[in-house]
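so my prof wants the structure for this chain in the tokens format not the other one, which i didnt know existed until like an hour ago. anyway here's the sequence
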Amino acid sequence: MKCVLLFICLSVGIAGFAQDPHFSQYFASPVTLNPANVGTFNGNLRVAANYRTQWWNVGSPFTTATVSIEGLLLRNKIREENKLAFSIMALNDASSAGALKSTYLSGGIAYHLALDEYAENSIGLGFNAVYAQKRLDYGKLTFASQFMSGGFNTSVASGEAFAGANSYTNFNIGAMFQRNTETEKAYVGVAAFNFLDEKLSFTKSGFVENVAMRYALNGGYNKLLDNNNSISISTNFMYQAGAYDAIAGAAYSWLIPTGNTYQTNYFTAGAWYRFEDAVIPYVGLTWGDLQLGLSYDIVTNGVKLNTPKNGSFELSLIFTGQKSEKGVKCPTF
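here's what i got, hopefully its the right format
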């Protein structure tokens, strides 16, 4: 049983057994960042996909993938300046050589209320409900009782008792303020996740771990310059189960001239810093309705001394459909 408890402790501290998955490109995963972000796009539809592979040179990497879709509701029933939007999201997280797998399905709704005639200032409130399942594949684990003269023999019974998969429901809420004009966009948001006091256990011995509440504070500012290039800064702070994650950075976007006056294209380069953890260079391309981003976590903490090439690749893709002529045209973060 010591081996089981050791594995679970490592999963808690490293893979996020009782903590939520996260992305370095948090700005490209709007639904996981803040439930109030649902509907904060310039168009009628937004689809976002993210993929992260962590510690890719340490055996089998930890991977996280998500896809979300957002759309507007009751456009003919509410004022044009206001927005009612929905979201649907699926997220899969695999760690420890795939032995621990987590799946999240969520549905949410958000309402954004304009504070002035031109909807340059608004406040929003969002809510989403989550169904989660965490499954431990003990067939991918080895135990001291299976160690023989020639190595581990997984056909030998481990003698451990497992409880199987865990599933639970939870809900999250968020609020935000944003200012959106023809040349600038600024926002600040707060969110709280995992309101219900859910508990998880993978063993029949009674070892239990709480699904801790997570708190988030995020904000950003985007400015369209006179030459149609733009500059962006953003930050995100999260706290959960005694641990914090603080990240901040900036990016510059260059307009790519084309003969199409109805389409704006940008190349973006920037960097973010996760405090006491990693430097994160970022490059992106916005081509009409598509925004593609690629980043790499360069680890700066003590882990890099023992495991070279232990950074994390991350890829994001956002599609925004039927963009309107209002608001900032440049990429936003």
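also thought this was worth mentioning. The chain has a mean pLDDT of 82.
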